[in-house]
Amino acid sequence: QVQLVESGGGLVQPGGSLTLSCAAPGFIISGYSMSWVRQAPGKGPEWVSTLYNNIKTSYLESVKGRFIISRDNAKNTLYLQMYSLKTEDTALYYCARGGPSNWSDGYRGQGTQVTVSS
Questions:
Q1: N or C: less crowded end of the chain, CB within 10 Å?
Q2: Residues 6+ apart with CB under 8 A from 93
């Protein structure tokens, strides 16, 4: 059974940092492209970043240079390190199996809330 379980969200001030984690019991994440997606209140889902199974990465333009996607194969866990957070980064963040064009076709978790506010 495919499961994706996110954690690490919270309330942070503008300019702060957070690291999100996504555990994946049931399948090996290194065999797939894995993405982070976010959904702000009142808006549709927005793709944020993908870590391809060949280690290459891609990012939404507005988070380039501030977010880093990575994985720990031993822990079978996907991460999203977020720095210099802005109020517009406030959203429910969830991980998904798949890349920028097909993440919505596959599995995703329940999400973890990130709120950037002073």
A1: N
A2: 6, 9, 20, 36, 37, 38, 48, 80, 111, 112, 113, 114
Q: What is the mean pLDDT of the chain?
A: 95
Tokens of 104: 């919505």
The pLDDT of residue 53 is 83
- Please work out, in degrees rounded to the nearest 5, the angle formed at the alpha carbon of residue 6 by the alpha carbons of 26 and 25: 10
> E strands within the chain?
5-7, 10-12, 18-23, 34-39, 46-51, 57-59, 67-72, 77-82, 91-97, 112-116
Span 26-43, pLDDT tens digits: 899 999 999 999 999 999
CA distances 13 to 38, 53, 87, 89, Å, are 18, 33, 8, 11
Sole residue written with tokens 């870590």: 51
DSSP codes joined into one string, 30-50: GGS-EEEEEE-TTS--EEEEE
